[in-house]
Amino acid sequence: MQVSDGRGASVTSYAYKASLMRSAHRFELTDEGLSWRIAGRSGVWRYDEISAVRLSFRPVSMQQHRFRADVSRAGGGRIAILSTSWQTAALMAPQDSGFRNFLVELHARMAKAGSRAELTAGLGRKTYAALLAFLAMLAVAMAGLLIRALMIGEFAGVLFILGFAALFAWQVGGFVRRNQPRGYSFDRLPRALLP
User: What SS3 class is residue 162?
Assistant: First the structure.
C-alpha cells in the first residue's frame, strides 16, 4: 500500500502475521530507508546498508503458493518477508499483490540509492545440490521398484508407482524449478519468485 506521510513523501508499507500468537510484522519504505517492526523490536535500514536480498518459493502445507524474501544488512541482521499471513487457526491468506508491489518498490529504492547488494534467487547452491542428489536417489529407488513390479507382473503396483511418481513430480517439480540458484539485477526481478 502506498500512502503519503504528511510531508509530501511517499511511503510504501507491507504487513503480515507470521503466526497467530504474535503481532504482525510491519515494514515501510520511507525516504530514510527500510523501516521494520517485528516482535517489539524496530529499526530503519538505509537502502545502501542492505547487503543482500534472496527471493525464494517456499510452499507450506497450509499455503502452496507462498514466497519469501530474505533481506540482510551489512552490519548484521536479517529480515524475512513472507507473501502470506495467518488469518485463523486453519487459514493462511495470500497477499500476492501487496508482497510483489513492496518488493518491486524496495528494489527500485535500493537501485536509486546506489546499493551494491547481492541479489540472489532460489535456494543456496549447496542446499540445491543436496536436493538434486536426494531426488536422484529417490528416482533410482522408484525405478527399481517399478522394474521389480513389472518383472513379477504386479500391474496394480506399477500403476501405483507411476501415479505416485507423477504426483510427486507435479508437487516437487515446481519447487525445484523455481528455486534454482541464480542472480538477478535490480531492473529484472525473477518473475517465477514473485506472486
Answer: helix
By the 10 Å C-beta count (0-12 exposed, 13-18 middle, 19+ buried), 11 is classed as middle
Amino acid, res. 138: L
Which grid cell is 61? 502445507
pLDDT tens for 66-92 read 899 999 998 889 999 999 887 766 666
28: cell is: 515501510
pLDDT value at position 87? 73
Condensed to tens digits (0 to 9), the pLDDT of residues 87-129 reads: 766 666 778 889 999 999 999 999 999 999 999 999 999 999 9
Closest CA to 27 of 104, 123, 127, 102: 102
